[in-house]
Amino acid sequence: MTEETAIASFRRVSPAILASARMAMANDIPDTSKSEISHLLKKAAPILGIDGATYHALDILLGLSGPDDWKGTRRPIVAISNAKLAEYMQRSVRTVTRCLRRIVEAGIAAYRDSPTGRRFVDRDKGGMITSGFGLDFTPARVRLEEIKESVENYQRELKASKDARRAVTRLPRAIIDACEEFPEKSDIWRSSAQAIIDGVASRAEQASGLESLYAEVLEYAEQRFQEHEMSSAGDTSVTSTTDTIPKIFSDSNERTRSIERDIIPPDDGSAAEMAYENKPEAAAGDMQNRLRQAEKTAGDIQGAVLDAVSIGLLQVGCRAAQECVSVEFHGWSDVVGAAEVMRRMIGLSEAAWVDAVGRVGRTAASVILATVLEKSLRDSYLIAKPGGYFRAMVDRAVDGRLHLSKSVYGLAQSEMNTRERRAKR
Known about the structure:
Blueprint: H1 15-24, H2 34-48, H3 52-64, E1 77-78, H4 82-89, H5 93-105, E2 110-112, E3 120-123, E4 129-136, H6 138-142, H7 144-181, H8 186-199, H9 203-231, H10 257-263, H11 270-277, H12 286-305, H13 311-317, H14 319-325, H15 332-337, H16 339-345, H17 350-360, H18 362-378, H19 386-399, H20 404-424
Antiparallel strand pairs: 1-4, 2-4, 3-4
Helix pairs in contact: 2-3, 2-7, 3-5, 4-5, 7-8, 7-9, 8-9, 11-12, 12-17, 12-18, 13-20, 14-18, 16-18, 17-18, 17-19, 18-19, 18-20
């Protein structure tokens, strides 16, 4: 078939659209498979700026492409009218038009317009495309290695950001414990920690500065411990106790909350969960009591949601979601760690995610998120708006009407049936 890519005169052409058209005319095309490129593009969606309705459109278009069209010198062209695609997505034609433009400008597809504007594909007896007009996904094949590298870099940056966020939450607490154990250094360490948090905007730089300060704290604590050991080495009249070990090496729950609030910065959603782990003081005011009651409610809801859901069941039921985010759900921490990527995959806003975490708990929200992503990956027609579907599930969880175990069990049973059918072939 021809390697020329025509763009209709009625289109408003941008440099990104022209760049995609040039890539579609390339002759040196890496060999790949429909499955590989589909998973890769879904992982790269947050990087490419594809979310919400655009992600839904991309999922449908990839599903309509022929598996053999991604091999050799063939070109994967999808011919579907905007009206039919709008019917599949349950959106307006104008919305579909904007979605297709975003896909093309993202550099993974190109317009291949016919003179009449109609989209169609002609194939020979062997199934090869002889002529076709529609959306050409050849640019995605041309950029295969580039997109792979971008996804790997993005996942590394995401992990580094998560580690830095945890460090900025964890290290000030450890430093506060050290201040209580060594009052002579309390003012210096507290002011240094506060200066790092107030003077540095980047979370990574904050984490680096706090790690350096914490290393100094550990070094001082070790010196004091050694001095104590040397001073009591020849004293037989004193019974040694384990209380000489500094509290900094243990997880103390007896922290002064007023001091923590002075040093520890807010942590976009995770601070509420951290506070739930700490026992509030008896003398807390009405505001703290209300917060504690809200946290208790979220904890109760989370327990009810996850009551009959095991990590093994989730691992079997959400196989496609795990492949999409490149994370195996061996434990609840794995599910929580993949939440940020899954949130972006379904086009859920950060504000909606933080609200869900505050209402049902981080683990329960992450499991609900994995379930929604799995359902949308299996059948994009069933869930037109994954973000809205997620929020509806959270509302049902708060009302006590969500039976998540049934949904996950159904997904797991469907996965097992699919495996059995494949084994019989």
